[in-house]
Specification:
By secondary structure, the chain is an alpha/beta fold. The protein has helices at about 5-20, 30-45, 60-70, 85-90, 95-115, 135-140, 145-150, 155-165, 190-205, 230-235, 235-245, 260-284, and strands at about 20-25, 45-55, 75-80, 120, 210-215, 220-225, 250-255. Helix 1 (about 5-20) packs across helix 2 (about 30-45) and helix 5 packs parallel to helix 6 (about 135-140).
Length: about 280
């Protein structure tokens, strides 16, 4: 490690020790897994990894999160959340994540109060702070701490530190919740999320690691890295059959390749275009 990363590493451990006892909002991704690992190393039995389970969280991700916690010998608990019952979340507005994280953190805080845990922490890192993330706002409003961000650890540094500490998921691709595959304004239902999950499971079974199945009504728009296109074409028949079996009529491959957050950016671009057309119309 570089001296700077080592300094941040030490600060991360200091922050977690200062917390006294913690509940870790743990999803199985590299960020929250790193917090979980270091918290366990520093606090032992005074930490508990909490995995939020809901229709928006793929079953495969939940199982992998459990397997990693068990492999590391970390105590964990499955916490059922019901954000899909909140009309604000189900309406799928641009700030949908705010309502999702509000539900998760409210439940974790209730556990903390009932059982005497001193803090709830999450896996937000320093790079996340520059983005427009309603979920971070929900956490801040509730006093949830972000040790990685507080220590100044960026996304790249988190992966490097995780690799140095031998965390198996150090190179795991980021995996947003299933609701992120649905255009804002399209209502979120458990049935729709199961359909998307079933379609993505087809890609998992074929060995794809980084992917999204974007929902557009009867159309499934598959995003994978450009370098995986030959593999997709090789397994074209299996992909088409499996994704259609999940409930889609049309199966498409996005030639632009995988882009995290592409659905949101596409909607933003469309909104700007509409505004420009309206302004031009008024000028005319």
């Amino acid at each position: 490690m570089t001296p700077e990363l080592e300094r941040k590493h030490r600060r991360l451990r200091e922050i977690l020790r200062e917390c006294g006892s913690v509940l870790v909002a743990y999803s199985g991704g590299v960020d929250s897994a790193l917090v979980m690992l270091v918290a366990h190393q520093e606090l032992g039995g005074r930490m508990l990894a909490c995995i939020g389970v809901s229709p928006s969280y793929p079953v495969r991700e939940m199982r992998q999160a459990v397997e990693l916690a068990e492999e590391l010998g970390v105590p964990y608990r499955l916490v059922n959340t019901q954000e899909h019952l909140d009309p604000n979340y189900a309406a799928n507005p641009a700030n949908r994540c705010y309502f999702c994280k509000s539900e998760l953190h409210d439940r974790l805080l209730a556990i903390a109060r009932a059982e005497g845990w001193q803090a709830v922490v999450d896996g937000t890192n320093a790079s996340d702070l520059g983005d427009d993330r309603p979920g971070i706002l929900a956490a801040r409003e509730r006093g949830v701490r972000s040790p990685l961000a507080e220590a100044g650890l960026t996304k790249a540094e988190v992966r490097e530190l995780a690799r140095h500490l031998g965390l198996p998921v150090w190179d795991k691709p980021a995996m947003a919740c299933l609701s992120s595959r649905v255009p804002h304004g399209t209502p979120i239902t458990p049935e729709l999320l199961r359909q998307i999950e079933a379609a993505e499971d087809v890609l998992v079974a074929l060995g794809f690691r980084q992917f999204r199945v974007r929902h557009h009504g009867e159309i499934a728009r598959i995003e994978i890295p450009v370098e995986d296109f030959p593999k997709a074409l090789e397994h074209r028949a299996e992909i088409v059959e499996g994704v259609r079996a999940a409930g889609y009529r049309f199966v498409t491959l996005d030639l632009a390749g995988f882009r995290s957050g592409s659905l949101s950016r596409a909607q933003e671009s469309a909104a700007v275009l509409v505004q420009e057309i309206e302004v031009r119309g008024q000028e005319g």
